[in-house]
Structures are given as structure tokens and as C-alpha cells.
Amino acid sequence: MNKTDKFCLLCAQPLHFAPSWQTLLLRCFPPCICEKCKGQFVRSTSATALYQYNDAMKAYLHQYKFLQDVALAKVFRQELHAQFKQEKAIIIPIPMHPMKQKERTFSHTEELLKAANISFTQLLEKVTVETQSSKNREQRIQSAPLFRLMPEAQVQHKDYLLFDDIKTTGTTLRHAKQVLLEAGARNVRTFTLING
Amino acid sequence: MNYKGWLLPPALRDFHEGRIWLKEHTPFAKYDIEQAINRKYFYIIDGIQKIPRVRCNRCYNDNLHDFTEYDCSKCLQKCVYCRHCLKMGRVSTCTPLLIWKGPKACRIKQHPLQWTGQLTAQQQRAANELLESVIAGKSHLLNAVCGAGKTELLFQSVHYALEKGLRVCIAAPRADVVLELFPRFQKAFPQTLIHAYYSGAPKQHGYAQLILATTHQLYRFEQAFDVMMVDEADAFPYSFDATLERAVQKAKTSDAPIYFITATPSQTLINQYKDSYSFIPNRYHHKPLPVPYFCSLWGYEKSIKRGKLPRKLKAWTEERLAKNEPFLIFFPTVELLNLAIPLFQRIHANILAVHATDPERKHKVLQLRDEKIPGLLTTTILERGITIKNVQVAVVGAESTIFTASALIQIAGRVGRHASYTNGEVVLFHHGVTLAMDEARQNILANNKEGSNDE
């Protein structure tokens, strides 16, 4: 279980992986998807996201979040690791509502970071069970507070980096950022896997 | 006066009988399910069994690579889930599976058979042999060439089993075959409730005593069927995925017989069923099977990649168009198919292509059948189970490993099925002749010889 994958996690084709000096010395993760599947994800031009949203991404998110395929958290671990390994700020993944998380059995943002071997802390908690995707643009932008600080959470006068899987209008990230800034954070930046 | 107790909704019983279902995915109200559980109408088992070895209790997958361990937020410990049958809703350590053991649905014993066709002497003989096996309750292998009329000769046996009050399942490896069989069975048994299950099938109500399903869908049944028929048992993916074989065993009751029906049985299957075996070497119209011929198409892949259709292939297609004959052209890979389709559309704009993940696959095949389009390019998904009048067939890249002997026999079997068009072309365009190609040709020639002796 959870060993090197012999088959592509997305299309189940056999993976041909020969470790090279480069992969060994640079301590790369072994690949878990094939080159063909990899080629369908388009890198984002934005500085605050890794990928663009497209059909392949839609299928990925569906399988990962809706079909609860936790194994897919590994798909972007190399890219996420490269992005965050030099990061000085404290990384905070956007939390799910505890009830929602229990329903899905895992937090998708935390699993992405765990798979990429990136340490993170959690200071926020979600207060609503409504999903952003069920609302239209106006409703999203005018929505009531989505987050609050966890009880006994200590926000220091430091830099923070919020991480989420996808950004569409940016409402979720804006709400979370505001809570942290009001609690005394020096600076809060945001980063997402996908730019919607 | 109101009745305060709980009554079992018949729909719940009809749905759950014979099924193995995730508790979280049941379509019924939580209250009803809880009540049924309290009354011990359900047998509840773990989704993933750990002892003696890790196994998914729905799809019987026990390959460790298909399991993933994760930190579960629901039970706050490490849980394991099965990736093999993920698309049917995730089965994990903490998701219980429900198996019905409550009151049984009532089975109807009247299933009038309205089929007026006439079986040939050979078909009748095989049908009788099959029926004898059904009556005796023993397994049977029916080997009949493509276009022998296998479906029709099942009617008698299915009819007998249904009227005995048995639950019958006809499983086929592919959704296309299920979709082809469904209307034929519904026509033959107009008063019988028949359910057809395949990925993406609509919701169907009631308790069906006759079920047509893809072998994948059998994961969702347990101890359900008293008679199990497996059509095209040698086809991908059935013969490539051991869990499907186990699914067939799991879906039937422990002493139910299995009937294999195929045009290309493997030697092991033949050896297994030596004493209850029927063979039909002839087509129902007594004309010999079209014999494939080989035609070299050197470097076809390079040529197509350069955007040029090989001359011989182009000539063949143009001839079909000129003669107004519908055609199917098989390709070994989806990539090559996608490269080739614009080249073909330059010859005739209405030529279309289908592959496994094409959402319009059903519609496109129908268009070809209704003569609305001149031809279709396809991958091996259409190799079996489809019947199109006067269709002509070409295989591009017949040397590819995906075209096994049985696949080629099946592909050749698409041709000349209609009684008024008993002949047609099967051409294997190749970049070198393989053993599989020779074997397919030899097999067809041998069947034709046996068929002519049998007359």
C-alpha cells in the first residue's frame, strides 16, 4: 500500500519509470501519472497558481473530491513541493467545515500538502456548510463571514500563506485573509493549485 | 385510526434483494433503512475485509496496489479504500455494505414468450441441448460462430427458467452488447420486467426477474441469480480482469449453473465443459462465413501521421462509397483513429469515428444502421455484438497485438449476417502478417468446412 505506483493513477496505463541520477540526487518523487495524462494539465501564467482550469482538471477534481480518491493527492506533489520548499511564510490550508470534512472523510487541501511533504498549521475554522460552487457570482461576493479563528489560535505578527485547491472569484481566500489580518498577521498571501 | 408501526416499503425490498450495496448510497430514506436493519432484514459486512488478506468485499479485488491507506476524518484513524471499483462509489474500511436477507420479492411465473422466428435444425439442436442443461441445472458451453443466431436460441431456456420462478442474469462484457440485447429480449418477452445495467444506465424500478448487465455491474450483486449466462466470455475486459470472473461467481447463488455463450472459446473453457458442450458451425442462413484476406499496407502509421491516407486504404474506402455499402474500419489505437478521421472526412464529410469514451457512441452506431452515414471508423469496441445490414469491414494495422485471433474472428463475424446480404468483404490491412491473423483465418476456414459437412 502507498508504495511506488506501477500504474498511472488517472488512466491505469503501466508506468515506465527508471530512476536516474537526477531523480535520486534531487530527491524527486517517483511519478504517479503517465506523461500523456500529465500533458493534459496546462500550467497557469498566474504567479499565484500552478495550473489552469480545463477539462482534465475538472475530471481530476471530480475524481479526487467527489469520488473521494485520496490517492490523487499525490498527482501534483512534485510541483507543489518545488513551489513551497523555499517558502518562509507559515502555510495555512483553507479548512473545510468539520461536518463536510467528516462527510468527505478527508480535507482535500491538507492531503495535497501532506502528499507534497510540506508542513502546515491550521488557525482557521469554517463556519458555514454552504459551498461556493452552489452560489452565483453576486451571492459569493456578498456572502456572510465564512471563517473564524480556531479557539486558542495564536496569530503572530508574521507572514502567512493561504493555500486552496481552486480560485474562481477569490471570495473564500479574501474572507480567510481578512480574518488573519484582523487578528494581527503582518502579511497574508494566497496560493492555489488551480486558477479557475 | 392510524397504524403506528413500520411497514416495509416494497420498493426497498425489490431494490435490495440480491444486491450488495453501500449503506451511504442507498436510494431510500434513512429511517426506512434503519428500521429494516433493526428487523435484521440486512446482513451487514465491512467494505474492506482485512483477514486473511486485504480484499474489497464488493469487487473482490485483492491486489494491494489498488488499495490506498489514508487518515480518515470520519473514524479518526487509518482507513483503507479500494480504487478498483471507485467509480461505483467508494468502498472503504468504514463504509458498511448491505446484503438483503429479509422477505423475498414475489416472483411471477407467467412470462409469455412472443417470438415467432424459426430456428434452423442446428440451432434447434443446440437450443435443446442448452435447455436440457438448464432443466438438469448443470453448466453448459455454447460455441456458435458469429451470426449463428445465439440470442434467439437462448429464448427457450430463458423462458423455461423464468416460468420456473428463477431469477436469470445475462451478462456481457460490454455495454454495447447489453444495449443490443435489451430490445431483442424485451420484444421476445413483452410482459416481463427486464432491467439493463451498464455504466450510466437510467434508474429502473421494480423487481426484475430477468437482468441484462455488463460483467462490471455484477460487482453490485451477491447471491442473486439462479441462472447465470455469460455472453462473449472471451472478450476484453472479462478475460483480462480476474475480478470479473469472481464477480460472476459472486452474483449467482452458490449452486446456480453458469452458461457460457461465445464464438471464440478458449481451449481451457472447452476442456472444462467437455461433457456439456454444443457447437454450431453454421450461420442461421447456411452461407459460409466471409473469409478475411490480407492486404499489405506498409508504413501505414507513418503515412497517416504525415497526413496522407495510404493509397490502398483510400481506394478501398472509395469503392465502398461508390457501391453505397456501409463500412466499418477498425483501428488499433485511439490516437491513430483521431489522426485518420480528418483524412477520411476529406473523402466524404459524413464519415464519423467512435471510441470507448465517446458520449455519442450509441447514436453514431444507430446512424450507420439507419444508413444516414456511409461509414464509421472505430477502435475494437465495436468488434462484437453489433449487427449492421450489408456492412463491409477493414482492419487497419491488423498486426497490432490488440487484434488477437478471437478479436479478428469477431470482427470478421460482423460481415454477411443478414439473410439477404450473406457475403461481404473483410480485409486485414497489415504491416506484416502475425500468427493471430493466420489463426483467425484458419479458424474461419475450418468452421466453414465443418459447416458444409454438417449440411
Description of the molecule:
Chain B: GO terms for molecular function: 3'-5' DNA helicase activity; ATP binding; DNA binding. Chain B: It comes from Lysinibacillus mangiferihumi. The complex is a heterodimer of chains A (196) and B (455). Chain A is of the alpha/beta class and 196 residues long. Chain A has 8 helices and 6 strands; from the N terminus they run H-H-E-H-H-E-H-H-E-H-E-E-H-E. Chain A has helices at 21-25, 35-38, 55-66, 77-84, 98-104, 108-115, 137-141, 171-182; strands spanning 49-52, 90-93, 124-126, 147-149, 159-167, 187-195. In chain A, strands 1-6-5-2 form a 4-stranded parallel β-sheet, sandwiched between helices. A two-stranded antiparallel ribbon of chain A has the order 3-4. With 455 residues, chain B is of the alpha/beta class. Chain B folds into 3 domains: 10-100, no CATH class; 121-280, Rossmann fold, CATH 3.40.50; 293-454, Rossmann fold (3-Layer(aba) Sandwich), CATH 3.40.50.300. The longest helix of chain B has 20 residues, at 435-454.
State the name of the first-level CATH class of the largest domain in chain B: Alpha Beta
The overall average pLDDT of chain B, rounded, is 90
In the residues of chain B, how many domains can be counted? 3
- Helix tally of chain A? 8
What's the CATH topology label of the largest domain in chain B?
Answer: Rossmann fold
Largest two-chain interface: A-B, 20 and 20 residues
Oligomer: heterodimer
Question: Within the largest sheet of chain B, what's the order of strands?
Answer: 10-11-9-12-13-8-14
Q: Tell the overall outline of chain B.
A: globular
Strand content of chain A: 15-25%
Straight-line distance between termini of chain A: 33 Å
Structural class of chain B: alpha/beta
* Number of helices in the DSSP assignment of chain B: 13
